[in-house]
């Protein structure tokens, strides 16, 4: 059995918000209790926890006469994000005299139709899609849809109405967003695959060896599968046996299966992208030679 993570690290791995059951797969009940007591983890309701970053953002927004937006709003909405932000994201009215500061990410915009605490779910997703790197933005959009806070059809429509800086990326994120991705890890992996040139789709059902499996990311045309492998969730003997069986039968059925760890996807994206580009080059060469 692997040693339990620190509760804060576990919550960061899970996207900044998680159920007690999910947290206890990575950390211990004692460590979680200590973190709550130290206020480095906040219990928002029974068996549900999050990082305290959103509270700091809420306080900073009140000081500036604005509202939480972008990643801070995503955290307040209770969505999992790949890199929980410790620096508040605040939007103030256009006529605000607030000054830029390293203490927060500050934006000026019309917020008259927004809530008193943070931007609406749809506005939050669009703002993130315009301003953040595509992998982070897609993870936010996926999470919003997964929590049924944003309708994917309405998201595409709203993105089509965006003009100016970030409009093209907003439309791209909206087009690829899906609630099928289980977590930010899978969302970021899919975004890297899209950026590398794959026709990447989440959780595509594939019939193999008499059963239906749902790999994390699939390019059906090229018969390429990408798996987001997290050792934290695959420490048991049965899980290990199941993963080995699934990998073997997919390869025997003609699929190319690539497995990437959380650290590779989140902290070494250049490595992942380079691997995918090399695979695409090899696939193209074989197609041309055929």
Topology:
Blueprint: H1 7-13, E1 17-19, H2 20-23, H3 29-37, E2 42-45, E3 48-50, H4 53-64, E4 67-68, H5 70-76, E5 89-92, E6 105-108, H6 121-131, H7 134-146, H8 152-160, H9 167-176, H10 184-196, E7 201-202, E8 206-208, E9 211-213, E10 217-219, E11 224-229, H11 237-252, E12 256-261, H12 262-267, H13 269-289
Parallel strand pairs: 5-6, 11-12
Antiparallel strand pairs: 1-3, 2-3, 4-5, 7-10, 8-9, 10-11
What does this structure look like?
It contains 13 helices and 12 strands. It is of the alpha+beta class. It folds into 3 domains: 7-50, no CATH class; 53-176, no CATH class; 184-289, Endonuclease, Chain A (3-Layer(aba) Sandwich). Strand 2 (42-45) and strand 3 (48-50) form a beta hairpin. Helix 7 (134-146) crosses helix 9, helix 7 crosses helix 10 and helix 10 packs across helix 13. It is globular, with a radius of gyration of 20 Å. It starts with 6 loop residues before the first helix and ends with a helix.
Large-scale geometry: globular
Structural class: alpha+beta
Give me the side-by-side strand order of the main sheet: 7-10-11-12
Low-confidence stretches: none
Overall mean confidence score, pLDDT? 91
Number of helices: 13
